[in-house]
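Let's study my pick:
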Amino acid sequence: MKELIHKAQTLVEALPYIREFYGKTIVVKYGGSITGTDLTNFARDIVLMKYVGMHPVVVHGGGPQIGSLLDRLGISSRFVAGLRVTDSETMEIVEMVLVGKVNQEIITAINALGGNAVGASGKEGKIIIARKMDVSRFARENEIDIPEDTDLGMVGEVERINPHLIKVLEDAGFIPVIAPIGFDEQGRSYNINADHVAGKIAGALKAEKLIILTDVPGILDEENRLISSLTEASARDLIRRKVISKGMIPKVMCAIEALREGVHKVHIIDGRVEHSLILEIFTDAGVGTEIVL
């Protein structure tokens, strides 16, 4: 009986959050490093969110899967500030893996658990209009050092988001699952950092939350202790002191940009923790790091 009462108490704790977020859009960035059983748990959480009246939108990466296939093909990978240098040959592999493999795996997992997911790259419905990344501006805005003559190839950044197709899918009861491939007015495809895409989509949709799933507990301080809450000023200071570094920098900067564009809260959480999404959304304590302006 005590176990049943505990389950009932858990549901009661979730009630105010269900009420608060009912009908609200929550953008979830799913990291490519989260696979296997963790993918199934993630898909179950997404389906539950939809069934209790939220509108989850999934944006996914796929870096490990891209790197694995490039290795098998004998194509070397090079990174600058956490961004993969992408020539035309690599771009073909990137698009094939993100759209043809990772996107389909997430859709399959969600639909197998009773959801109704629809996959798209940023090309469908002109969701993501992109441009070649301005490396010097990226370095300046992220307060990192990158040589001025660095060419990242077909690495892009979001010029604008057209959210119409996403809203149509939401209104029709579907769960959009979006791969971070954009294209420009000339039809050139670009590999875009998935955190950047998730932040821009969250901003365009005026989402209630942006939740970034990764393979670490959240943002850690100098002593490797979890920081539960962080402001923009504190985050920038940690970047300057190199406490926040490498792949965490784009995550934090996209979080700040999303907040400035109208997203209420951003959370960076460990997607490997079972039901981390549910713990973050439906409990008083939450998990990971919350970022606010």
In short: The first helix runs from residue 2 to 21. The chain has one domain: 24-292. The CA atoms of residues 152 and 219 lie 27 Å apart.
